Each structure stands twice: as structure tokens, then as C-alpha cells.
Amino acid sequence: MHESHMTAWIDSSHLAGANATYIEDLYESYLRNPSSVSDEWQRCFSDMNGGEAETVHSAVQDYFRRVAMDGHARQSMVEVKTDIRQIRVLQLINAYRSYGHQVAKLDPLGLWQRDEVLELSPAFYELSEGDLDTRFNVGSYQGGLPMMSLRDLLSSLQKTYCATIGAEYMHMNSIEEKRWIQARLEAAEGHPNLDAQERRQVLCDLTAAEGLERYLGAKFPGAKRFSLEGGDMLVPMVKALFREASRAGTEEAVMGMAHRGRLNMLINVLGKRPQELFDEFAGKHGESWGTGDVKYHMGFSSDFATNSGHIHLALAFNPSHLEIVNPVVMGSVRARLDRLKDPSGIKVLPITIHGDSAMAGQGVVAETFNLSQTRAFSVGGTVRIVINNQIGFTTSNPQDTRSTLYCTDVAKMVGAPIFHVNGDDPDAVLFVTKLALEYRNTFHRDVVIDLVCYRRNGHNEADEPSATQPLMYQKIKQHPTTRQLYGERLAYCGVVTDAEVEQLVNDYRNALDKGDCVVPEWRPMGQQYQQNWTPYLGHDWDIGYDSRCSRQQLQALGEAICRYPQEFELQRQVQKVYDDRLLMSRGEKLVDWGFAENLAYASLVSAGYRVRLTGQDSGRGTFFHRHAVVFNQKDGQRHVPLEALLPNGQGFEVYDSALSEEAVLAFEYGYATAAPSGLTIWEAQFGDFANGAQVVIDQFVSSGEQKWGRLCGLTLLLPHGYEGQGPEHSSARPERYLQLCAQHNMQICVPTTPAQVFHMLRRQMVRPLRRPLIVFTPKSLLRHPLAVSSLDELADGHFMNVIPEQDTHDPAAVTRVVLCAGKVYYDLLDARRKGDLKQVVIVRIEQLYPFPHAELAEVLAPYPHVREFVWCQEEPQNQGAWYCSQHHFREVMPEGARLFYAGRPASASPAVGYISLHLKQQKALVEDALGQS
């Protein structure tokens, strides 16, 4: 800072003499972190620099000391006192912005015990009663005039920050975003400007929200419905979100929520016919091919009419794992944005609705926040609404549900603004709702609305909450509903009459009695949303498909995906990989796994399919095999050859994901459910890492079609195979997936050649069938000298569910048939060849489910005389395919034949940790399978 700038500034300011120490400390904080001081001080210190670079701080400190000791620079004590008070008034304003929410009137029941916040008292800043009528410059505060009395300023601050809205935003890093929020909060001064029509609409929506719950409670007493009562404002606020979003250009909205209020959302927002819900309560279910799910897990789709046009709504299906639906919603939104070619996120709005305890308690919430601004998973920001009924499943003590002041504190990890609002103040709720959406659309970041309300009934309607929360439920029984309170307020203001309020109640009940749609804005779903899945409906596994790809096309594609910018200098090993791939594409070298996989993607992209691949090291490949992304060693520039296949570069995308399995896999599931015409792949770094996403596999991947009719073509690549890497990196636990298999719900494949992985990936798209594909991919086979294929096998072949014996042999001389899957085949093959065991044949089962009975029977037809059949696996006996699949093996064996097991003994751990023991076990199981033991 130049001395001339500082002298001029100090001479014209209150920052002289006795204030020097205070200013020095403030300025030091500014130098460390500009956002640590108020906006006024940031501008002051920035102006002092005259736009020039900052000088050494010690020189500034010395100058402040000289000024403090220079009598000529001092003002009179009266002036100094006035200036100190001005500084402290600005500090007071900043304190209200930072801490006002801690004393805001957020609890409709008035039960919250709030600690006193000393920083909000004028006395904390040595401002006295005598200062209340003194006028001060209020800096950037926009709740009044530039000069206000301290008394008026305090009144304005309390209305803005301590009434029924509690805003948390000072933790945000962006000064621009903080100023943006300040401008809108402070200008409103706690008095949202809603016109009479909006208020009447809110009252109408509140009447519907309350009316449905009362109707269901009377008609089906004691039935579980997870009532919204107490959080009734959710219905008006969500409908307001749709209207505002449509005005901003949004065409679709995707919502995820748990149980509470879902039935209300279905009937009063999305327009499901009440009669359909009543039939479900009465046990009248229509004929369905699936097993179905309970009412409060179901989703729905419809269109919603606004003055700006129709907006398409989709409420995601959700299991009882509550917050797991959040990344599913965001994945669906990302797919829709990609389809609409809208990277900004304006055209599709994600809305997630949380419970207070679940928001704080479930780790997938933090995982999803972490994904929100990453390249692979950003959706332009999510509006997150918390139905905060102040108690969790059974507890009323926040100390038992979280270790933070608010259930929403997890959102601070990404600097999201949080707006706490009293659910019994509909005007404030609507103001916050509009503000949150505008923030999301402006800055494309997550925003949280904490709707502080209560739960009028127990966790479900069969629960008696007063047993554990006696005081709270005594208060609730005496507390009027939000509709009652708002109706009285509007009647008092002359917006409606008491008679009109009563008429709304009667009209809604009559509409429910008729059983037809009760949402005036409901419209039937547009054709474009119904047609997305039409080509994939009604097909079974045996449907014919043509997956041929000519040798000439493969050669051209192979050369294309080996190109990279001329100026690129590849890393030495990567250069060798690309040199070899050029030879493979010309037929001068056999194709390895990595090249076959890339060729599969290239053939699909060139045919118009989108390919999306994510995982923790998917660009390069965990095992240095894929190299779909290459980097210039000179400047780190990135290049993706597969993106260059199409002029717009949008046919293929690969991302190295965050270190998350649960949220990322859920996101990709959501993406796949909204993008049936593209190949969506999630790859585990090691197959056992999928353990961290077991909820997604159990609740969505394996059962989504049966429960909800949701088709999904998601592909999981799970590296699997025993190479002596210990318990954590050997087994992808195939037994878990096989145990989940039923009703042809998904495919379990264990390919052993590059040609097989090529055809398997192509089949997943070319065959008009969309069901999850679980692939146990290899590690050591990626560079195994025998695990190679010719270009002709890629061009002319198809995926073989069963691969017969490949060596020449005399079927009549065969006395033993070994069945296996995966890498162990190559160990068996090597040992058999070394032992010259011509009486043993090895058959590979490449698809374990749906089990290929017909193909296997055909392969085994030459061996009707064989009595010894062996299933060989690397996994322990209680794991792998043995227990889940042996009945399938027996079905196709000749009559009188016996089936034996060859593998590791049963174990509580997936694999041993000592390499010597691993090798001993591997040798023993191979010898046992071949009859050498």
C-alpha cells in the first residue's frame, strides 16, 4: 500500500490515532482472507491499494504505528469516540448477518431453547442506550436508508435476520454470492411481497394438503400413510417452485423424497387420481407383471400447467433407505440435461426432499454434496428441502441425532446457502422458495431450505408419539394447523372471507369423494416422455439382434482411436500401448482386452449410441489397460480419441469419479433409467469396492424392475480374480449378485477373451433389451498371452454364453468334464496341457445368469457317457457360483453323472492374505479339478 494513498485515506476517515491497533488487526485478517472481514472493510482496504499489488505487510504495520504516535494525525477525543461507534455499528450489522439465525423464531411450537448470542447485543460493542437515536452510516446494509438511527437499524436487522427466516450464508466463500443474498434478504426486510392471488393459491394448496390427510385418516384409520400433517407447507412451496422454474425456462423437474408426505405429493401435486390411492389402501391392486411395492415408495410422472407453459414432473421411486434416492435423482437429471444439450442446468430442475435426521445421519448426503460441482456429476445445482419435524424416528433430543447445531450443517461443506424458515409462516416460506430457486439458477449451485415444522402424528399412524415426547405432543394437540392460522390471517387482512375459507374445505372434500384428479394444473404426460422406452418394452432374452461389425469398419475405427494430436508426447508405456494398437487394428497383432473394449465403444459411438463410463480410475484403467484418455507429457493437456469420432465430440464420455461407490453408482443408475439409448457403465476400482454401494445394488439395480417397473440397462464392471492380492482385492463376491438373481432381473457375465467383452458390450446396446449387466472383469487376463482374439473373431462372432473345449480332442476318450468361469480357465488349461490330460475337457460358462441351459446342453451333447463333472472355482466353497448355480449344472448333465466341487474350502474371508498360501491353494484346486490330486 503506497503511503500517499494511505495518508489521504486516513486524513479523511475515522481510522486514526486510538483506532490504529484495531485497524491493524482487521487489516491483517483481510490480508490472510479477504472474506473474513465485512464487505465494507473489503472495499476500504481494496481502495487503499489503489488497484496496485500489495506491499510487504510489515511496512503497513509500521505506518499504522507512526500514525498512532503522530499528534498531527489525531482527531479530538469526541471525533474518535464517534468514529469508534461507527466501526462498531458496522460490526453489529455483520454479526446479525452471521448469527441472526441463531435467535430467529423458527419453531412453530415455540419449544426451541436458543442460547443467547452476545454478539447481537449493542452492549457487546459498547453501544449504549444513549446511542439508540444516533444516526450512523449503515454501509452496504439494504434494509433502510444509507443513514439510520441505531434504534431503527436494530429493528430492521431483527425483522430481516431474526424473525421467521433464519439465513445462513456468511460461511460461503464467494463474496459475489453473499452480496447477492444480502441484497435480496435485506431489501425485503422480513416482509415478503406476495399479492392477493398468490396468497389465495397458498391457502387453496394448504387446504388440499390438510384435507387429504384428514380424509385418509377418517377413511383408513390406523393405516400407514406417513402423514404430512405439521409440514403442510411442503405442498404449496413445491408447486410454487414449479411455477417459478417454468418462468425461468425449466422444462422438466425430477424429485426425490422419502416417505413423509409422499402420498400428499402424489395426489395434490403430481395429480394421481385419489380413487387409485383409495383402491391401494383397500387392497384392490390391478393385475401387474411385477411384485410391486408399498404405496409410500411409489413414483409418478405427469405434466404441470403454468402461465409460462407446461413443466414435466417426475417423482422418483424410493426404497426405505431414504437419502439414497438423492444421487439417483441427480443422475436422471444429468441424463435429461445431456439429452436436451443444456450444460447450464436450467432446463431440468432437481429437487430432493429430506427428513431432518436422515439429512444429518446418512453419509450418502455428504457424498452427493461432494459430487455436486464435479465435471461428471454436476446438474446445475439442486434445490434441497428438509421437512424438519424436529424429531427423528423416535427421539426428540437433537443430541442423539447429530453433533451439529442444525441438521443442515452438512451443506456447509460445499458452501451452500441455507435458509431456515418457520413452516407456519407461508409468506416467508414462499419468499425463501423463490429466493432459493433464483440463487440456484443464477449460480448453478446447491441450495438448502430447512422447513422447520412438526409431526402431528407419530412416525407412522400406528405409533403413539406421546410415549417418548410427552411435552411436544401436548403442545401439538393444542396447536392450530397451518391452514387454520393462514386462513385467519388472510381473513383478517381482507384477502378472503371466513365463508370462503370454509368453502375451500368443502369443495376439496367433495372432489376427493368423486375420486378424480384434484390438481387443476395437472396435464397428461407429453408424448415425448412416453416414447423414450417404447423400443425396449415387451422383449425377452431370446429376441434376435444383429451385432455384426465388418472387419474393414473395425480397422478404420481402430486406427481412428489410435490418433492423437501431433504435438502430443505420450508417456513411454502409453506410447507402446498405442503403437501395439495400431498393429492390432491392421491385423498384424492379436487384439488384447483394452483394445477390444475401446473398439466396442468406438463401434457403438459411430452407430449413434452414447457411451458414458465413470469410475475411480476409468480413463486410464486401474490396471493400466484402457487408456481411453491420454496426456501430453509436456504440458498435461488431455485428449480422448473416442470423443473425436463424432464432430461434436458428444458420443463418448469418460470420467474419473470421486472416491465414492454408493453415491456414484446411484447416480449412474439414475442416469441409465433416463437414457435407454446409451450405454451407461460404472466401473469399480476393484470389484469388492462395490460393497460400499450394496444398498444401490439391492434396492435399485436388482429389484427396480419388479418393484416399480423401471427398466434399466446399467452395466457394472467389477474386477475379479485371485492373484494373491489378499482378502480385499480378490473377489467381487459373485455369490451376492447370483443370490439376487430371479425372474430374469439382470445378467451376470464372466468373459474370458477380448472378443467376448467386445460382443458383450455391443449386445447390451444392439439387443433391444434393457436390463442391468454385471460383469466380472479380469485383472491378470488384461495382458495374458493367451487372452487375445483376432479381428475376425470381433467382426464375425457374437457373445457366447458358453464356450466349448477349444483344443482338439476325441469326445469318446473323455472321462471328465470341468465346468468353470473366469480366469481360472487359463490356470486349468495350462495345467492340463502340461500334464497332457486328453481325457479332460474344459467348458467355460461365460454367462451365469440367466443360465444358458440350452447352450450348455448342446456343448455337453458329445459327452453322454461321462460320469464325472466338476465345477471349478477360485472362490471359497461358500462363495462364488457353487451354491447358487449347481442346480443349473445338474439340470444339463447326463443321467447318472455326478457333480464334484473343486475350489477353496469354505472361508469367512474372501481370500487368504499370504502369497505362499494363495499359491498352494490355487495349485491344489486346479489339480483337484483335473483329477491329479
From TrEMBL:
GO terms for molecular function: oxoglutarate dehydrogenase (succinyl-transferring) activity. Its EC number is 1.2.4.2. Residues 591-784 form the Transketolase-like pyrimidine-binding domain. Keywords: Oxidoreductase, Thiamine pyrophosphate. It comes from the Bacteria. SUPFAM superfamilies: Thiamin diphosphate-binding fold (THDP-binding). Coiled coil: none annotated. The keyword Cell membrane does not apply. Its cofactor is thiamine diphosphate. The keyword Oxidoreductase applies. It is an enzyme of class 1 (oxidoreductase). It holds the Pfam family 2-oxogl_dehyd_N. E1 component of the 2-oxoglutarate dehydrogenase (OGDH) complex which catalyzes the decarboxylation of 2-oxoglutarate, the first step in the conversion of 2-oxoglutarate to succinyl-CoA and CO(2). Belongs to the alpha-ketoglutarate dehydrogenase family. This is oxoglutarate dehydrogenase (succinyl-transferring).
